[in-house]
Structures are given as C-alpha cells and as structure tokens.
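Input:
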Amino acid sequence: MELFGIFFSALLINNILLIRFIALCSFFGVSNKIDTSIGMSLAVIFVMTISSAVSWALFHFILAPLHLEFLRTATFILTIAALVQLEELYLKKMIPALYRAMGIYLPLITTNCAILAVAFLAIDYRFNFQQAMVYSIGVSLGYSLAIVLFAFIRERMALAPIPKWFEGYPIAFITAALMSLAFLGFTGMFGL
Amino acid sequence: MSLLKDFSRGLVAENPVLRLMIGLCPTLAVSNTVINALGMSAATGFVLVCSNLVVALIRKIVPDEIRIPIFIIVISTFVTISDYVMQAYFQDLHHALGVFVPLIVVNCIILGRAEAFAYRNTVLSSTLDGVGMSLGFTLALGGIAVIRESLGAGAILGIKVLPQALAATIMILPPGAFITIGFLMAALNKLENKVL
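Output:
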C-alpha cells in the first residue's frame, strides 16, 4: 500500500514536470514532435532508474559511512555523467534498436535536472532501496506521460490559428498552464 | 567601455531567462513569493560570480579535453557552500527552496557562462559578466514573483496591494507560474514588433 502511494504520488500528484517544475528545459525543448518526445521519454526512463539505483547505493554505502555527505552534489553529477556514457556504449553494442530510438537524447540527458533531482529526493525522503526504485520509476513514467501528452497538443496547435504574439513559446506556456491545472486536480487522491 | 558592456549584457539584451530561455526550472518553481525569489537569486548569483571568477583564473592551466568535468567540480563546490550556509543561517528559506538549492549545479546559465564566456576572457570581465547575468536573473525572477504574489496573495512582503476578495490563489499555485511567464513573453513579443 505504501509503495502504491509512493508510485502514484510520483506519477500524478507531484508530477515532476507540471507540479514540481523540474526538467522544464527538455519539456519545452523536445516536445515539438511526438517522435522526439517518445525518444526522450525512453531515455529518461532508462537512465533515471539506473542512475538513482547507483547514486542511492553510493550515498548509503560509501558517503554516509565515511561522513562525506557534503560531497554528494559533486559525486552525483559526476556519477550520472559517467553512467550516461557507459549506458550509451552498452546500448550501441547490445540493443541497437533501442539506441536508435533514443538517438541524440541519451547524451543530452546528462543535463536533464530530473535525473539529479530524483537522486537527491530519494535521499531527502529517507527512502529505502525498494522505495527509491518505485519512486524513480513513478517519476520517469510521470515525465513520459506529461511530455508525450504535451507533444500531441503541440502538434495539433501547429495548425490552429493563434494570435501572432502568442506563437511559439508563449502559447506553449499557456497550454502547459492548463495541463498543470488538470494535474492539480489529482491532489488529495488516495489520501495523499 | 567594453567592461561596461560585459556587465550590462546580461540585464536586458541577453537576459538569461526571458531572452535565452535557460534556467527555467528555478524561475517557475520558486517565484511564488518575492522572498523565495530573492533567496534563490542570491544563491544562484553567488555561485555564478564565484565560478566565473575561478574558471577565468584557471583557464590557462585547464586541459581542453576535460574542461567540462572541471567546470562542474568548481560549480558544485560553490553550490555545496551556499547550500550549507543557507542551512545554517536561513533555515526557513532553505526549507522553502528545498531541492532547488543543490539543483543550482545543473542550472544551464552557470555552466553556459563558464563555457561561453569565462573560459575565453579575463578575470575582471568574467566577474562583471557574472554580476550582470545574476542581476538579469534576479530581475526576471523578481518580476515574475512580484506579479504572482500580488495577484495570488494580494500582498507583497506583507504589504497589501489588492483587496483580499480579488486575490486568486491559482497564481501562487503551479499553473500560475506558466500563465505568468506565457503572458510576459507574449507582451515582450508585442513590444518588439511595435519597435520594429
């Protein structure tokens, strides 16, 4: 039951893009087309799950016993950068189809703040390993849900008549506001 | 003269948030009250100025191939310092800003300035560039916060500006951030078209 709560809270109630405002650069940057948003989502699901497992283990088995908690910012960001490189090599060799689907979004993900944020939040919320995993899967699925829905709307909007000053980013922000309003409606669900 | 230009570039012409569309996450997330916005601007400004200064100092001895990891270590050092100072002296603010304090390390403005400016320029002009960019960030963040707090809570820093009945709580909730920045950008577009 508790894991269920963590999962839905991460997926809908505290949606990382629309409610918590993390990783917005990619939200507006790669949501022009449905294809690119799906590629980015795949890369986020893949990298976030692995990197939050690794950073959780690093913090609890190395940094905390040695009282080096103040190094966590530097450690996490370097770990994530290195991991993304390794994962890229592995995918290129072992699963080329998935590698092609992710395309250039895999290297870009190092600067996606959602990955780092989930590593920090899993520590701040004092999750155990199982909870941290459920949490990061929930967050990455929530990210995918929001960005793919947004890409669908933006593709439609390209054909709609829009006042001249609102073309491009301004109308995208207004759309995001309406989506955020819809996600706000999940507040209080499941007693969370 | 060119020093003045280094300083003023970040204010309007290359305002990081409203012109270059970088550093969006903290802009939207912590602009719900003016206090939070100023706290975030101060922390980001401290990190930006210090990292520009240090990167400009060490740029001659940094090997080209590994400059990005070195920049990241420099930046994360200053982020950790500001995180701990804030935790020690401004606990309420630290609690309100939450995960966005350590996330300064991935704020694209800071790494972007280190790579695009401080790595190629002298210490003095890099520092001035850092100060200018921080002020530009403060302006944008503070401006959005003033709009959101006055419309959403009806008061700025405890001073009443709107009758309570007119305050719309939605403006300090997440959707309000998107609405404010969307309309601000549309207004900027319109102003620019008029000038042209």
